Amino acid sequence: MTEQLRLMAVHAHPDDESSKGAATMAKYVDEGVDVLVATCTGGERGSILNPKLQGDSFVEEHIHEVRKKEMDEAREILGVQQAWLGFVDSGLPEGDPLPPLPEGCFALHDPAEAAAPLVRLIRQFRPQVITTYDENGGYPHPDHIMTHKISMIAFEAAGDPEQYPEAGPAWQPQKLYYNQGFNRQRTEALHHALLNRGMESPYGEWLERWEKMPHRLERTLTTHVPCADYFEIRDKALIAHATQIDPDGGWFRIPMEIQREVWPTEEYELAKSHVETTLPESDLFAGIREN
Q1: Domain edges within the chain
Q2: C-alpha of 198 from chain center
Q3: 6-182+221-273 has which fold?
Q4: What is the C-alpha separation between 214 and 261, in angstroms, rounded?
Q5: What is the pLDDT of residues 101-141, one digit of tens each?
Q6: What mean pLDDT do residues 257-272 have?
Q7: Rounded Cα gap, residues 16 and 221, in angstroms
Q8: How many angstroms separate the CA atoms of 86 and 106, rounded?
Q9: Rounded distance between C-alpha atoms, residue 39 and residue 87, angstroms
Q10: Within 10 A of 119 (CB to CB), how many other CB atoms are there?
């Protein structure tokens, strides 16, 4: 009998799972794969980005509970399981010089200690594949960078019975990927597709900013997962995070038929693998299904 396939996606905040790899997760759920989202923080210090909810005193005073409820709704839409690691949002520091991070926040923890609950979760869920962020965090939010750090530690430590012995029997995941859905190739393809059709593109300023972030240009896209049939589920899950997304904003200005025609995949960078695989891939479980 083929062993049940399991995928774990490690994210910094509620809403990250819906903006990074959501269609991929929905696709695998539909195929019978067990999918678990590990959410590192509660998003307590996240800004209210939806202008329709800005100034809402209830939302502002109960942001932790509100974001938890949003996560519950998104989880149901995607059909995934979800677990909180229990850390406190670090916020995104702004200013010059940058202010210090809040005491006790996720990003100030020792990474080896902060990896412990993730090691425990990996050993309990036993995923063959884990997705997370690259060393830049996808973008340099301190919680995203810390998510990368603990994911890298936990990926290897979970399989070593001498490390974190209190976290349960060892389990070694086989592959680890970086989410690279916000890549220049995709952005340029959609940008030019819109302009060629005589439509406005929301990506012009994105591409200008990309020139100032050279680290974003160097990533290797090893794996393109076809998941266009699940883009609508992705969008519904993202809209469920009402404090974080404006349903009338730029996220949703690209007609679905253009997205499906021009760029029908979500992209990943294979960072670690304990199985043989041939690049490029179209399946996060390539090399695992065959074995």
Answers
A1: 6-182+221-273, 184-218
A2: 32
A3: Rossmann fold (3.40.50)
A4: 28
A5: 999 999 999 999 999 999 999 999 999 999 999 999 888 89
A6: 98
A7: 20
A8: 9
A9: 9
A10: 25
